Amino acid sequence: MRTSKSIICCAVLLLFPGTAFSADFQAKVIHIADGDTITVLNSTNEKIKIRLNGIDCPEKAQAYGNKAKQFTKDLVQGQMVTIQAYDTDRYGRTIGDVILEDGRNVNQELVKAGLAWWYRKYAPGNTVLEKLETEAREAKEGLWNDPHPIPPWDFRHGGKRTLIKPKPSPSPSSTINPPSEFFDSLPVRGNQRSHKYHRPDCPSYDLISPKNRIPFESAQKARDAGYAIAGNCSSRSSQSLLPQSNQTSSIRGNKRSKKYHRPDCPSYNRIAKKNRVPFGSLQEARDAGYVLAGNCP
Fold first, then answer.
1. Mean pLDDT of 166-179
2. Is 93 considered catalytic here?
3. Three-state SS across 225-285?
4. CATH of 18-155, one of 3.40.50.1820, 3.40.50.1370, 3.40.50.300, 2.40.50.90
5. What are the pLDDT digits (tens) for 58-96?
6. 133 is an active site residue
7. Catalytic pick from 2, 46, 90, 93?
8. CATH number for the 167-247 domain, one of 3.40.1130, 3.40.10, 3.30.70, 3.40.1350?
9. Rounded distance, CA 186 to CA 181, Å?
10. Is 59 a catalytic residue?
11. C-beta of residue 68 within 8 angstroms of C-beta of residue 62
């Protein structure tokens, strides 16, 4: 009877290999390849290469690549850790979370420190990593101190940038958006490669490669030069649906950093909702003790 049970268990593992990762295991970290790849030694002295789940650290040739590796090394080198294994990748590496003895998640710590990106492609539903990346970006932690960081997945393919689309706003009543007419009076950026122009409120305004940027004094100047509005920019019709009270409150404060952001500031739409403080004017923000964000033009 015992032999039959063993045969059944083996058959299950062969038919459903993912079940092999249903249990966590403890192991000692013996090597750090880079920020998101380590090698551990398990209880049977088997060496297992671990690829940290849901994140992507800068490559060694990129800025912050070596810092990410050192950060991981400082946390786990020679330590006993718990591996929460989920799968294996095409290189045979185990994909998983690395948990320290004090309960901290190394994957999350890297994102929190601004030394790893949330790997949207492979962990699209990981709201914890999404939140930590947003907070690190707003605080300009680590790689986010660079105004134009290149995701490692783009760097590995020649440095071409990927558009990271923000989540759509839940509703006009919960989001403060200045009217598009406001931005028509501001300088815009054209992309000479796509022949599209971007207002400061467009998601890709800061994602245009510097070598492809063409500055225009206004949206009309861009249109006169043959440029069309980028498709991911919000339309005037959708902005006109906003309540009048929302349209007048065009300044956003970040209660965490005590900085305020004008609509033309790069971080205007990146402030976490829980930290947003609306102001009706610049003076109102200053009177409340807020100062202008450093990345505003």
1. 44
2. yes
3. CCCEECCCCCCHHHHHCCCHHHHHCCEEEECCCCEEECCCCCCCCCCCHHHEEEECCHHHH
4. 2.40.50.90
5. 998 899 999 999 999 999 999 999 999 988 988 999 999
6. no
7. 93
8. 3.40.10
9. 9
10. yes
11. no
